[in-house]
Amino acid sequence: MNTAFLWHNGRIKPWAEATVHVSTHALHYGSSVFEGERVYATPKGAAYFRLSEHTQRLFESARVYDIAIGYSEDEINAACLELIRANDMRSAYVRPIVFRGAGGLGVLPKHGAPVEVAIMALDWGAYLGEAIEKGADVCVSSWHRPAPNTLPSWAKAGGNYLSSQLIAAEARRGGYDEGIALGHNGLLSEGAGENLFLVKKGKLLTPPTSAGILAGITRDSVIALAADLGLTLEERDLPREALYSADEIFMTGTAAEITPVRSVDRKTVGKGEPGPITRALQQAFFGLFDGRTADRRGWLEYVDKVDRADVSCAVVPDREDQEAAIHGRTTQQEPTLETIG
Ligand SMILES: Cc1ncc(COP(=O)(O)O)c(C=O)c1O
Fold first, then answer.
1. Mean per-residue pLDDT for 225-249?
2. pLDDT at 112
3. Which residue among 254, 259, 288, 299 has the greatest number of ligand 1 atoms within 8 angstroms of its CB, and so is best to mutate?
4. Angle between the 276-290 and 217-228 helix axes, to the nearest 10 degrees?
5. Which residues are catalytic?
6. d(CA 244, CA 140)
7. Rounded to whole angstroms, what are the CA distances from 58 to 55, 252, 261?
8. Closest ligand 1 atom, CA of 160?
């Protein structure tokens, strides 16, 4: 799983050399903020998906906890790109993390206490395995998400993931792929590591960002792609029973991508297989990485300015293709609900 190199405190170094002391503050108090990002192998070379938005969220998470990162957003973006080049990767799951280091065991760190920054790139496939094709079997967890005035859910902080561990562990013990949590008010919140979407009578429904969820970047992407497909979407509070009458359900996240749900609490969702709207959104989303969906919002950030695939290719692309490559456009049509059926 690990790669040859990672980035740690300003330089690329061998994986094994990036160690920390046992008195590291984050180890004791969960004082880390992190990101999960993906690099996809596209026809034009390796590309990050929405790198700058992930880095921006990393900085926003750090601000909540007054953790001074010590690098600019541009420097972190450059480090992320450099790491993929150093490991010569075509695709990857990337994990930047900022954490309070070894500098005393007080809960409130002393002024000027060390902050460390690391970025790891891993070779990681589908997070929920074959569920991405067949659909996941999920349950509603007996554990709720933390209330908004306890742990801020918009901050992607290490400590928040104790809640996710309880939810996911209970689900796995019960033989499910994943757990869905209710919020402090008993309404639907999100999965252990994913946001949640329902489809009812052709309309997409998703809990609002005030429902104790991480404001997911994949969630945001799906909302935009749904608009492109002409779908209606409502962000609104949803009770648990909405899961049992939904025509389709899917979960979104950088790791989970767009994973259909085929049953909840052993009740079959729809026909027990990914439905047409889920499939259409999957196709639009994955099409961004194989060139079938135009990257009209500039979401892809290429690792190399010169495309490796083009360099090794003897065929000179025609002018239209070159222009499309430069502007991140494809000449093929994007999928619509009609074309997907
Ligand atoms: C708790 C939780 N909710 C939602 C998400 C989805 O967020 P994103 O799409 O930004 O990866 C994640 C994944 O990081 C998560 O851990």
1. 98
2. 87
3. 254
4. 100
5. 156
6. 11
7. 5, 19, 29
8. 1
CB distance 177 to 250 below 8 Å: no
How far apart are the CA of 158 and the centre of ligand 1, in A? 12
Question: What single DSSP character describes residue 333?
Answer: P
Ligand 1 shell residues, CB under 6 Å: 36, 164, 190, 193-195, 213-214, 216-219, 252-254
Fold of the CATH domain 5-122: D-amino Acid Aminotransferase; Chain A, domain 1 (3.30.470)
> Position of tokens 């999100």?
190
pLDDT number for residue 307: 47
Amino acid at 27: L
CA of 298 to the centre of ligand 1 (A): 21
CA of 163 to the centre of ligand 1 (A): 13
Domain covering 131-285 assigned CATH 3.20.10.10 in the classification? yes
Bridge partners, 206 (sequence order): 235
Question: How long, in residues, is the chain?
Answer: 341
Which residue type, as a one-letter code, is found at position 46? A
Domain boundaries, the chain: 5-122, 131-285
Please determine, for residue 222, whether its predicted confidence score (pLDDT) is greater than 60: yes
**Distance from Cα 37 to the centre of ligand 1, integer Å:** 10
Q: Whose C-alpha lies nearest to ligand 1, atom 15?
A: 193
* pLDDT tens per residue, range 46-79: 999 999 999 999 999 999 999 999 999 999 999 9
Give residue-wise pLDDT tens across range 85-119: 999 999 999 999 999 999 999 999 988 899 999 99
